[in-house]
Amino acid sequence: MSFLFGKKKTTAELMRENKRMLDKSIRELERERQGLQTQEKKLILEIKKSAKQGQMGAVKVMAKDLIRTRHQIEKFYKLKSQLQGVSLRIQTLKSTHAMGEAMKGVTLAMGQINKQMNLPLLHKIMQEFEMQNEKMELTSEVMADAIDDALEGDEEEEETEELVNQVLDEIGIDINSELVDAPSSTVAAPAAKKKVAQVEASGNDDCGIDSELQARLDNLRRM
Q1: Which of 1, 92, 143, 209 is most buried as measured by Cβ atoms within 10 A of its Cβ?
Q2: How does DSSP classify residue 1?
Q3: Which residues form a coiled coil (predicted)?
Q4: Domain-by-domain residue ranges, the chain?
């Protein structure tokens, strides 16, 4: 039977119509008040004019009209203030209703999402993610260790060469000049052995070499 009486209006539509009517009434009251204020100014001018002419009877009549006009203006002010308060309440209710409808829609959407969620599948996905993450971290650690080991070997070789040069410099032997002066690799090897033997002999004969230098020479002999 709803088609006979028209479509039923929603709450939002009703509040919008009521607010529109209130705003229209406020505008009409404002126009009436402005008209009364104009009439008030005219009465004041007429009262002054009649008083100058000595027409006191007319002055009294117009004075009563002026008082009634001012009372009416005051009533219009009060009515306008009350209607504005009602309009503000309707606007607040409209905003609250809109927020409630929005929350209702969000609640329904959240319910549908929760129904569609597969908790066992999500749990399985999280476990798989944790396992793959651990594997990735382990792989990264292994690669980092391998890189560190490779770089550490190069560093040890450089440190060993620097240590040998430092020891030879301390005992006054320039190994680079010895290698340059050597005629060939076959001759360089005995020369190097001879120099090492000389170093050992000088180490045994010279009491000025401290224990640290002696330890470095021992390390060179073992290399």
Answers
A1: 209
A2: -
A3: 12-46
A4: 7-121, 149-222
